[in-house]
Design brief:
The structure holds two protein chains of two kinds.
Chain A: E1 5-7, E2 10-13, E3 19-24, E4 31-38, E5 42-50, E6 53-57, E7 64-68, E8 74-78, E9 87-94, E10 103-104, E11 108-112
Parallel strand pairs in A: 2-11
Antiparallel strand pairs in A: 1-3, 3-8, 4-5, 4-9, 5-6, 7-8, 9-10, 9-11
Chain B: E1 3-7, E2 10-14, E3 19-26, E4 32-38, E5 44-50, E6 56-58, E7 64-68, E8 73-78, E9 87-95, E10 98-104, E11 108-113
Parallel strand pairs in B: 2-11
Antiparallel strand pairs in B: 1-3, 3-8, 4-5, 4-9, 6-7, 7-8, 9-10, 9-11
Classes of the chains: A mainly beta, B mainly beta.
Chain lengths: 113, 114
């Protein structure tokens, strides 16, 4: 079956702009989580969505937001981009039952200039 | 709160040698434990996980890890390194009551010398 699909793969934006990243989970997976990966901070949890509701949230400013649609697809938005937002953004999908694994997409590489 | 410590940001081994990547966690109760691998410009791929049961867990590509509660450790090993094992490895934990939120270690880059 198809894996987790993230679009676009690469993105270049200017400071102050906003950006929207998309994640299509594996069919049947209803939980979608987002992570930011940077050389300095490593992998950090942004938020998790389940059934169109944010279930968990990490320690990121309000400029980072997300949503989930009825088909489980998710988007995350970053407003007023800063240079420090340059990162690889990873999406993971999973079933909601315990003892299951999270499957990661290939990520979106965001560069803010 | 949970945290993960990976000792050694870079590990270099010769092809055919033992691979040992160290991971210690801090958690008030034993969490779920995972090892993921990341190749350049790729996402994360699950190598193995421990949730319950046998503390020695076997994963893909010949890797295994042992959960040691008394040492709060979950070290990753492979008896014989292959060139294709060169990648970055991440140890992660999640809480048993919040298992879709991962806390990752800082990663260990494995270099395999011919």
């Amino acid at each position: 079956k198809a894996g987790v699909t993230q679009t676009p793969r690469y993105l270049i934006k200017t400071r102050g702009q906003q950006v929207t990243l998309s994640c299509s989970p594996i069919s049947g997976h209803r939980s979608v989580s987002w992570y930011q990966q940077t050389p300095g901070q490593g992998l950090q949890f942004l938020f998790e969505y389940f059934s169109e509701t944010q279930r968990n949230k990490g320690n990121f400013p309000g400029r980072f937001s997300g949503r989930q649609f009825s088909n489980s697809r998710s988007e995350m938005n970053v407003s007023t981009l800063e240079l420090g937002d340059s990162a690889l953004y990873l999406c993971a999908s999973s079933l909601v039952e315990m003892n299951t694994e999270a499957f990661f997409g290939q990520g979106t590489r965001l560069t803010v200039v | 709160a949970q945290s993960v410590t990976q000792l050694g940001s870079h590990v270099s081994v010769s092809e055919g040698a033992l691979v040992l990547l160290r991971c210690n966690y801090s958690s008030s109760v034993p969490p779920y434990l995972f090892w993921y691998v990341q190749y350049p410009n790729q996402g994360l791929q699950l190598l193995l996980k421990y949730t319950t049961g046998a503390t020695l867990v076997k994963g893909i590509n010949g890797f295994e890890a042992e959960f040691k509660k008394s040492e709060t450790s979950f070290h990753l090993t492979k008896p014989s390194a292959h060139m294709s094992d060169a990648a970055e490895y991440f140890c992660a934990v999640s809480a048993r009551d919040n298992f879709n939120k991962f806390y990752f270690g800082s990663g260990t880059k494995l270099n395999v010398k011919p």
